[in-house]
Amino acid sequence: MREPSKHCWKSYDLIALYKKTIKKIQKEDKLQRFYFPPEVNCYWNTKLKAAARIILNGDNEPQRIEFNPTYFALFPQDLEKVMIHEVLHIKFPNHGASFKLHCKIYGGLLYSKNIERRKS
Q: 23-74 pLDDT, tens per residue?
């Protein structure tokens, strides 16, 4: 799988990365506590201000995960870590202590970089 860049982010397979991420978490989850849907719609969203976001329905089931292509053109190395962050929101909807702990355990990025300052 290629890393996204300014020229190839549209071709990067986000659904394949989602599947790889849930397999990684489930493999490392020795107590088998986590169930993740086998597939979630993942999209690039050019209007997104944050690096990424997950849209959950009322039952905390993921509807879709959106990624900001501008952010990942600048920071392609963050894509896998941000995917881990967003996937963990399926089990931990907010950024509380449990979310932060699991994000650290599985290698997720807790905070994305600010891209607004880099536009100048």
A: 999 888 877 778 888 889 999 999 999 999 999 887 878 889 999 999 998 9
Taking phi over 0 as left and psi of -120 to 50 as alpha, with beta for the rest, 96 belongs to beta
DSSP letters for 64-106: EEEE-HHHHHH-GGGHHHHHHHHHHTTT--S-SHHHHHHHHHH
Q: Which of 117, 62, 69 is nearest to 92 (CA)?
A: 62
Domains in the chain, ordered, with CATH?
A: 9-119 (3.30.2010.10)
H or E stretch covering 28: helix 14-28
